[in-house]
Design goal:
Blueprint lengths: L2 E12 L10 H23 L3 E9 L6 E11 L1 H6 L8 H8 L9 H8 L6 E4 L4 E6 L2 E6 H7 L2 H12 L9 E5 L6 E4 L13 E17 L7 E5 L4 E6 L2 H8 L10 E13 L2 E15 L14
Parallel strand pairs: 11-13
Antiparallel strand pairs: 1-3, 1-7, 2-3, 4-5, 5-6, 7-8, 9-10, 9-12, 10-11, 12-13
Helix pairs in contact: 1-6
Length: 305
């Protein structure tokens, strides 16, 4: 048996292009998917897998614009309920408030994004009772620690971008607004939309290593930072050629290559974490040997004395 938590939300896009109460599917579908991901990320961040959440379209309403009704349904997994009996779960209605999708709060994620306006956050102070103070130079904004945790979630910020900024880039779509039933709207205008662009994901260098490797040529490129495609017997990857002597010999025409040639090289691998994605970059530091493909079979040939 599961405990259920439900809440409703009304979302409106407004502007001259929407006076017929219609919105193109290619604009609406990504926005709806992003709304679902926004709530899923918020739920995952604050409830850590203890609840399941779904967002469904309940119907439409007329406001002289284009609007949709959403239902947010959250279920507490019984096993998690037993295991975390002493740990409070953030319910669906509270998620809406923390995201700032209600006029009853002035310090949700929605309001924090509008206040920051893509400025650099210079300091965060931890106050009492779960309150934090966010500084942009001399200005500050007080909010909850939970709101700050959501604000720092890059996937959630990207979802906000797709819900607010992207639709408002369409000609004639000027406003995004959201509210709980019978509540007042909280809104963002076309001029405020750029504040919702997600920041670039931070790149963290994890480690780097060098080794001697034999690589088979798959494709050669003399553009895009001289990134050649190689196969090492297990996988295919791109590597930048940064050996100046080797590149000079190529430019002079002293070297010729063909698909399947083998290069013995000093290979550098750099692993970085971008958001939650692990990435690997390869660089050929030095080419030690070049072996042409189609090598003749070896035979025990004896030469005369």
């Amino acid at each position: 048996m599961e405990d259920m938590s439900k809440a409703s939300l009304q979302v409106v896009y407004d502007g001259p292009a929407l006076q017929s109460h219609e919105m193109e599917v290619r604009d609406l579908a990504p926005a709806l998917l992003a709304l679902g991901e926004l709530f899923e990320e918020a739920n995952a961040t604050l409830n850590d897998g203890r609840t399941k959440l779904s967002v469904s379209v309940k119907g439409s309403f007329k406001t002289g614009s284009f609007g949709i009704d959403l239902g947010v349904t959250q279920s507490l997994i019984q096993q998690a309920q037993d295991l975390f009996a002493g740990s409070p779960v953030t319910a669906a209605a509270n998620l809406i408030a923390l995201l700032g999708f209600t006029s009853l709060t002035t310090r949700g994620v929605f309001q924090l994004i509008k206040w920051v306006r893509n400025r650099d956050i210079t300091k965060v102070e931890i106050l009492s009772d779960g309150v934090v103070r966010v500084f942009c130079d001399q200005e500050h904004f007080d909010t909850e620690e939970k709101v700050l945790a959501l604000f720092r979630n890059w996937k959630l910020r990207k979802a906000f971008q797709d819900v607010v900024h992207k639709p408002l880039q369409r000609p004639g779509v000027d406003y995004f607004a959201v509210r709980e039933p019978d509540g007042d709207f909280v809104a963002a205008s076309e001029t405020e939309a750029e504040n919702f662009i997600a920041p670039e994901q931070e790149e963290e260098r994890l480690d780097e290593s060098e080794r001697v490797a034999s690589l088979q040529l798959v494709n050669i490129a003399f553009r895009d930072e001289n990134k050649w495609r190689f196969h090492d017997g297990a996988s295919t990857f791109y590597a930048s050629i940064v050996d100046p002597s080797f590149l000079s010999m190529i430019e002079s025409g002293d070297l010729r290559f063909g698909k399947g040639d083998i290069l013995r090289v000093r290979l550098k691998e750099i692993k970085t974490l971008v958001g939650d994605q692990l990435k690997a970059e390869h660089q050929v530091l030095e080419v030690l040997d070049h072996r042409r493909s189609g090598t003749q079979l070896k035979l025990p040939i004896q030469h005369p004395d």
